[in-house]
Amino acid sequence: MGKIRKTYDVPFKKKAVDMYLKEGMGYKTVGRELEIDHKIVRRWVQHFEAEGIKGLEEKRGKAKGSGIGRPKTRPEDPEEKIKRLEAENEILKKLLGK
């Protein structure tokens, strides 16, 4: 099983970024103050500087676009479905010896 990662809300991330940028604290100091890893603070600052407040929003679990993922299949024609299921039944009957 994977490691469960804690998520932080945008105001908390913004507070950490402000402590670094406005108050001049270092990554490690901010991390110690907020009881989080300093690498997380560095990542938040980089995202904030690149994208602004949008960079602090949670990105996990969100699709990046409509073209991402498995393509939708067309609905199967009822006659084709019947033929496919009959063929499956015949195979199963042969395997079971009936």
- What percentage of residues falls in helices of 4 or more residues? 40-55%
Low-confidence stretches are none
Distance, first to last CA: 44 Å
Tally of individual helices: 4
CATH class type of one domain: Mainly Alpha
Please explain how this structure is put together.
It is a single chain. With 98 residues, this protein is mostly helical. The protein has a domain at 1-59: Arc Repressor Mutant, subunit A (Orthogonal Bundle), CATH 1.10.10. The chain contains four helices and no strands. The protein has helices at residues 10-21, 27-34, 38-51, 78-96. The protein is elongated and about 80 Å long. Pfam families: HTH_Tnp_1.
Question: How would you concisely characterize the structure shown here?
Answer:
This protein is mostly helical and 98 residues long.
What descriptive keywords fit this protein?
98 residues; mainly alpha; Arc Repressor Mutant, subunit A
What's the arrangement of secondary structure elements?
Elements lengths: L9 H12 L5 H8 L3 H14 L26 H19 L2
Helix pairs in contact: 1-3, 2-3
